[in-house]
């Protein structure tokens, strides 16, 4: 076993323990983790796009927006967090427009801000939030693992050769199927039955995870980067690790607000209850 592979395994185990522990405890611990992910994602995205050098004002506005969003997420003010994200993205986009960095500065705020907000809102503080977060994790991790191994084993037509030459349709299909199976398995472990909505929601989240992976690959290819950063030994950057997770979290957040109302109080409880039909 190579030194790099050992480093990657150890880093992965440490990260997994931290994430699962924070998810289990919930509250400020998971919210703090979500905010940390948001801040680091904005740092990586803005650094890759060259915003600090090309458009320092746009970059500064972006950072103010992300830090304001972090404060509102930590103080459980999701509406204010959404306002900070949209206003900050608009301001950063306008400030960087003439220097050609406007769209990227705006996307950095939207991408990072929604990531932190969606993760924090899904987990919340209650038991339903824990169920929903485990549901999302199971889908994303199963999709990612099976897509990788089945894609390498089966090969076949490329999914998006200009964006990520290694990804295949066989990997995407088997990965999505694994995500659906994992989501249904978690739902059955939590409650009896689950109905037709569980596999449908799981499929949407699995596909969203794969789109998130492709989006991050496109961003890196656009700016000629192999990894989003070198913050995580053996793994690259934070964006490299959470690309699928944050898109699945976006989708879960939207679905949680679009599905029929439940009888639970609180944003996080409503979100989790609608996702799993609790």
From TrEMBL:
InterPro entries reported in the protein's UniProt record: PC_trans (IPR000374)
Subcellular location: Cell membrane
Transmembrane segments: 12-41, 61-89, 101-120, 126-150, 171-190, 196-215
UniProt signal peptide: none
Pfam families registered for this protein in UniProt: CTP_transf_1 (PF01148)
GO terms for MF: nucleotidyltransferase activity
Membership in a protein family: Belongs to the CDS family.
Protein's name in the database: Phosphatidate cytidylyltransferase
Organism: Hoeflea ulvae
């Amino acid at each position: 076993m190579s030194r790099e592979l050992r480093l990657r395994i150890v880093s992965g185990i440490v990260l997994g323990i931290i994430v699962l522990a924070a998810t289990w405890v919930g509250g400020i611990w998971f919210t703090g983790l979500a905010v940390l992910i948001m801040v680091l994602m904005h740092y990586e995205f803005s650094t890759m796009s060259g915003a600090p050098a090309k458009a320092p004002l746009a970059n500064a506005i972006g950072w103010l927006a992300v830090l304001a969003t972090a404060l509102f997420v930590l103080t459980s003010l999701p509406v204010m967090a959404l306002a900070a994200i949209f206003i900050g993205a608009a301001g950063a986009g306008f400030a960087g427009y003439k220097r050609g960095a406007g769209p990227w500065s705006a996307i950095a705020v939207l991408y990072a801000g929604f990531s932190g907000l969606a993760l924090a809102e899904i987990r919340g503080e209650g038991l339903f939030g824990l169920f929903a977060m485990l549901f999302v994790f199971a889908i994303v991790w199963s999709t990612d693992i099976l897509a990788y191994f089945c894609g390498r084993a089966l090969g076949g037509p490329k999914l998006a050769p200009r964006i990520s030459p290694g990804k295949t349709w066989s990997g995407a299909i088997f990965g999505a199927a694994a995500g659906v199976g994992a989501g249904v398995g978690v739902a059955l472990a939590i409650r009896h039955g689950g109905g037709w909505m569980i596999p449908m929601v799981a499929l949407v989240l699995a596909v969203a995870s794969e789109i998130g992976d492709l989006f991050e690959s496109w961003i890196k290819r656009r700016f000629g980067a192999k990894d989003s950063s070198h913050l995580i030994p053996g793994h690259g950057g934070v964006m490299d690790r959470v690309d699928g997770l944050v898109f699945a979290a976006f989708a879960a957040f939207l679905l949680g607000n679009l599905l029929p109302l439940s009888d639970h109080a609180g944003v996080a409880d409503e979100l989790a209850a609608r996702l799993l039909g609790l």
